[in-house]
Amino acid sequence: MLRRILVPIDGTESSWRALEYGCELVRLSGGSLVVMTVAKGHQAEPVLAVEGESLFAHIGNEVLDSANAMLAGKGIDCTYLLENGGNVAANILQTVDNEGCDGIVLGSRGLGVLEGILRSSVSKLVLENANVPVTIVE
Fold first, then answer.
1. Helix H or strand E segment including 53
2. 62-118, pLDDT tens digit by residue?
């Protein structure tokens, strides 16, 4: 049974559905969630200072704030993480190890079969390289 589940979110509809699914899994198992977002950009280089934070951190914090509001009152043990820049799939896989997660639930980007083959999606890269079970929510 999954006890600590990583749910990477990016503010898309599929990532919010993945978060809901992850909530149901930990509700059933009595486990906990690790909710993370990776602020995309030029390798974590700030492009605009916003009260001491980079624009990337500001955008990531908005996504995490939304996740926190969504989970408020659900009684779910949750850790929130913000990663800046770099390879999104690699950040997800590293977080699994760092946080001791035994499963990943992530949203699909919705690429078609042909486009998914021609262009590697984050969900495809995570699925191919994870050493824990991966659930992809459409």
1. strand 53-54
2. 888 889 999 998 999 999 998 877 788 999 999 999 999 999 999 987 544 444 444
- For 35, residues 6+ apart whose C-beta sits below 8 A from its C-beta are 7, 9, 19, 64, 67, 71, 78, 79, 80, 81
pTM for the whole thing? 0.81
CA distance 138 to 10: 14
Beta strand 32-39 with 53-54 is unpaired
- Which CATH number belongs to the domain containing residue 41 in this structure? 3.40.50.620
Whole-number Å distance between alpha carbons of 88 and 102: 19
Counting the structural domains of the chain, the total is 1
Kind plus residue range of the DSSP H or E element containing 115: helix 113-118
Domain hosting 53: range is 4-137
Residue type at 92?
Answer: I
- Return phi, psi of residue 66, to 5°: -65, -40
